[in-house]
Design brief:
kinase; kinase activity; Cyclin-dep_Kinase_2_interact; elongated; mainly alpha; transferase
Length: 145
């Protein structure tokens, strides 16, 4: 387990350890996970809007082409086949984004359940008013919920 890092000998005695343990550690980890999930949600939201914009543009171009085809020859009113394949591909991409967003929401629900469990445990241990001194400098456990 002991090894060298540069000129300093790293041993189990001087290895940096986290001071936060128990419920406080779980709340800290939940907050970090929540932040990461929000960042992922924002990215998926942006991706979804981009795909939806492409879908709208494809549909508008198909409508424009149908109008041009309708003006030039009234006998052919079918939409171009290439546009349908492109439209279907973009719709599949949008469905994939929605599925990923559902997974993010499911993970967020699990984090909320975990936070409620921490809050219930603290209420069981310290009564309905909770701890006298909050686990963190500014927020108590209920505020994290």
């Amino acid at each position: 387990m002991d090894g060298e890092a540069g000129d300093v000998m790293v041993t189990s005695a001087n290895r940096k350890r986290s001071v936060v343990t128990g419920s406080a550690r779980k709340m800290k980890d939940n907050a970090a996970d929540w932040h990461n999930l929000m960042m992922r949600w924002n990215k998926l939201n942006e991706d979804g809007f981009n795909v939806a914009e492409k879908i709208v543009n494809i549909r508008l171009s198909q409508s424009d082409q149908q109008l041009l085809v309708g003006e030039s020859s009234s006998s052919s009113s079918a939409a171009p086949a290439g546009g349908a394949a492109e439209l279907e591909d973009e719709c599949c991409k949008l469905q994939d984004v929605v599925n990923k967003m559902v997974a993010v929401v499911t993970k967020m629900e699990c984090l909320m359940t975990s936070q409620r469990g921490i809050q219930d445990l603290e209420e069981f241990q310290f009564g309905p008013e909770g701890r006298k001194v909050p686990q963190f400098h500014t927020w108590n456990t209920k505020q994290f919920g």
